[in-house]
Amino acid sequence: MDSVLWFCISFSLAIFLWFKFKSKNGASNKLLPPGPPAWPLIGNIFDVGMMPYRNLHKLGDKYGPVLWLKLGMSNTLVIQSAKAAEELFKKHDLPFSDRRVVDSLTACDFDKGSMIFGCYGEYWRMTRKLCSSELFVHKKISASAPSRQSCIDIMIQCIKKDVNVNGGGSGEIEFDKYLTLMTFNLISNYVISRDIIMDSKSDKGNEFIEAMNNFMKWNGIPNLVDSFPFLKWVDPQGIRRNTQKYLSKLINIVDGFVKERVHEKLLGKEKEPKDLLYALLEHQGKGEEEELSEENVTIIVLEMFLAGTETTSSTIQWGMSELLRNPDSLQKLKDELDQVIGRSRNVEESDLNKLPYLQAVVKETMRLYPSLPLLLPRNAREDTKFMGYFIPKNTMVIVNAWAIHRDPNSWDDPLSFKPDRFINSKIDSKGQNFELIPFGSGRRSCIGMFLGEKMVSLTLARLVQTFDWKLPDNVPPESMDMRERMGLSLHRLVPLTAIPIERKI
């Protein structure tokens, strides 16, 4: 009890002294963006709550699209309109190009080797250029299409098999299980050219997924340390300790794959195709100013799994949810697939550009359910004048894509699922139409956006082409539970279940 009392006293005293210092040395005489009054010590933490993208959206209705908050000790700028996002990404991308690294990702020095979460600088530029030029280009993405097709084929066969075992073709399935395994295998094939789950040489698949899920769970919890950095030494919620536990497991598994590839390379046994791991290892020893160590290679490979698996599977699940809730849209997509592709062969990646309604369904899904509703926080590298306001150095910058995608100034009937809004529309999700930015924009946009869109599109197309779908227990579509939960990405609160019935050729 005494230790708890002393902790509370120390906590209160430290915050009091910090605010006293800031009031004398801060930017109080500068024009800051509007925002709600901040409570002493804790600032606006209660205003943000457990569903920050929703609560920030509500605050925007009162204070406007450029919002100022104090989250404990952290100055925070929130962008919530397409116009403000365009101003940020087009005119102020460089001064806001740093990442705000959360405390948990400093475990195992993950942030120092990361491309996605690392700070802007020479190392980031080198790794971004390497990944962009060597792998995440249209030519190489297209060349790897057969591998993705195979992963989806395996998922479809697993669904068929499980349905037959569980009820003669009328069994109920839970999408999350199949989509997670499929996207995980798809990423592993693209990054390290092996199917970890089913590879006879490795029994690490289940261990990897379990550790990854626990890593995601702990990093989806709001951390007091990020608002009150002096608590770092205490780690009061145990978030960094648990992150380190599971991150160490993940790093050890991936390090095994890296060392195995290095050994194959030394023996001259390395095989085609040339994947991301190959490109990273080839870059070693080229005398670049910023060295790419084996530890950094391991972290970059690992973060491709972390970034691609959960975001892709959750987006597909939201897309299927809306199609089941909107039978007319589901039928329209089915008709397009039947007319353009037919039932005598499977839809392929090369067909996607011939399927405008499918593309519209994917865009509308990403509009309503951006996998990262607040994108990834940025950090101001310097004092900056933004839209007439003073933004101090080290301000955290949040872009609320969820709010921008539901802004009535940009979208008619923004809360409804209406894929037709994208038919004959030039709006895309590549980061230049700022009313639709599921992958972000500018220097720190998602490097895998083209691959991610193909994965979502092809998987949805195959699921709709192969099966007719019914909701279980005669649940009316309009009664579906569409509530979400927030972690590192946007998930359904209740996993989606449905009954697949194989369509006859």
Account of the 3D structure:
The chain is α+β, with helices and mostly antiparallel strands. 50% of the residues lie in helices and 9% in strands. The chain is built from 18 helices and 12 strands. The strands form 4 sheets. The protein has a 5-stranded mixed β-sheet. It has a 3-stranded antiparallel β-sheet with strand order 4-12-9. Strands 6-7 form a two-stranded antiparallel sheet. A hairpin with a 2-residue loop joins β1 (66-71) and β2 (74-79). α9 packs antiparallel against α14, α10 (205-219) packs antiparallel against α12 and α14 (294-325) packs across α16 (356-368). It is globular.
Q: Mind telling me the C-alpha Rg?
A: 24 Å
Helix content: 40-55%
CATH class of the largest domain: Mainly Alpha
CATH topology of the largest domain: Cytochrome p450
Order of H and E elements: HHHEEHEHHHHEHHHHHHHHEEEEHHEEEE
Counting structural domains, the number is 2
Question: Structural class from helices and strands?
Answer: alpha+beta
Strand order of the largest sheet: 1-2-8-5-3
InterPro entries: Cyt_P450, Cyt_P450_CS, Cyt_P450_E_grp-I, Cyt_P450_sf
Cofactor: heme
Pathway: Flavonoid metabolism
GO molecular function, one term: metal ion binding
